[in-house]
Design brief:
The complex is a heterodimer of chains A (175) and B (175). Chain A is of the alpha+beta class. Chain A has 4 helices and 5 strands, in the order H-H-E-E-E-E-E-H-H. Chain A has a 5-stranded mixed β-sheet with strand order 1-2-3-5-4, with helices on one face. The longest helix of chain A is centred in the N-terminal third of the chain and has 19 residues, at 26-44. Classes of the chains: A alpha+beta (175), B alpha+beta (175). Chains A and B meet through helix 2, strand 1, strand 2, strand 4 and helix 4 of A and helix 3, helix 5, strand 4 and strand 5 of B.
């Protein structure tokens, strides 16, 4: 007997996709959680077997997915990030005052023992499939290619510059 | 196919059919979601059992003989504006307690201590994040929390954020 499957295409067929009322509708939240789990599984493929859930999914979407590879000490955490402040949305606007469906950064997380460090990629995501290519690339670079942190930092900076999230000559010195 | 599509013929029968379409479609769709989630959970269980990458322990296993494990909480500002990389961090020393979970009030005090270490510029983009973090901590008792929580800055580019990490053998913030 063929086991049932549930793919990203199946999720996209749901009439509530992309689940804009997930914050108040439990069923939409479950569908959103399933979407991101399948999104990650689609990127990792058979390598997903090396990753295990770390911390529980939270109803506020922070995180909506958290997995760690205990051998590589690499982690991936997805946090749902919505435009609650009503900012103008990329690509109609750019820069610090605009809302982007993807922000990415590195974090030194910990296993539940509070001591063992984990090199973690954190993605602040809003379900907008126009940036799926970028989401998938970051996950692939960090979890499959296991790029060193300095290379990941360069790629993060390149993404932010190309999308206009930051000015390439931004002054980071203190005021 | 979604439950709504399955029930589509009922919708052709006028308003009484619409109710049948809505209710039946919801039941079938939710059932499908639950089935899909079960499949995903089963897959995750398989992933945890993969021999080439042992699962991350999710509870205190106490295998080292150094039990009981301590409780710890840290609150820190992070991002490229805190030291040059998205993982750079500024924060007061973590709270560590060997006997009991750390209280929510103590964590809020820790947030104030970290806040005092930030420059005006680092604070300006994190005002809302700090407020949200402290409100979130204050609302945790009595169930508490174990894990990592990130509160993005008003401009999250460069990984600018205000984070709280809670580790231990059981949840902190239960009081």
């Amino acid at each position: 007997m063929t086991p049932p499957s549930y793919t990203l295409d199946d999720i996209r067929q749901h009439p509530a996709f992309p689940f804009p009322r997930w914050q108040t509708d439990d069923f939409q939240f479950l569908m959103l959680e399933l979407y991101w789990a399948e999104r990650v599984r689609a990127v990792l493929g058979p390598d997903m077997a090396g990753f295990a859930p770390l911390y529980d999914t939270e109803r506020d979407g922070n995180p909506i997915l958290s997995v760690t590879h205990s051998g590589l000490l690499r982690g991936l955490r997805l946090v749902v990030h919505e435009n609650d402040e009503g900012k103008p949305v990329y690509p109609d606007a750019t820069g610090p005052g605009a809302f982007y469906p993807l922000y990415a950064f590195l974090n030194t997380g910990r296993l539940p023992d509070g001591e063992t460090p984990v090199n973690e990629l954190v993605l602040l995501v809003s379900l907008d499939e126009r940036i799926s290519k970028n989401v998938d690339a970051f996950i692939r670079w960090h979890c499959l290619d296991t790029l060193p942190p300095d290379e990941m930092e360069e790629l993060l900076l390149k993404y932010e510059t190309e999308f206009g999230q930051i000015d390439s000559d931004a002054d980071l010195s203190d005021m | 196919m979604s439950g709504y599509a399955i029930m589509a013929p009922a919708a052709a029968g006028g308003p009484p059919g619409w109710v049948l379409w809505a209710v039946g479609g919801t039941i079938i769709t939710v059932g499908t979601v639950m089935l899909g989630n079960e499949v995903y959970q089963a897959t995750r269980s398989d992933a945890e059992a993969a021999p080439r990458a042992p699962a991350v322990p999710r509870t205190d296993t106490c295998v080292s003989g150094n039990c009981p494990r301590s409780y710890s909480v840290r609150v820190h500002a992070q991002g490229r504006d805190c030291g040059g990389t998205t993982g750079s961090t500024i924060g007061a020393p973590p709270l560590v307690n060997n006997g009991a979970p750390i209280a929510a009030a103590a964590a809020i005090g820790l947030s104030q201590a970290t806040w005092a270490m930030l420059s005006r510029r680092q604070r300006n983009v994190r005002i809302q994040a700090k407020t949200r973090l402290e409100r979130w901590v204050a609302a945790r008792p009595p169930s508490g929390y174990l894990g990592e929580k990130t509160f993005p800055a008003s401009d999250p580019s460069g990984g600018k954020r205000y984070d709280i990490d809670s580790y231990g053998p059981s949840p902190n913030f239960i009081s």
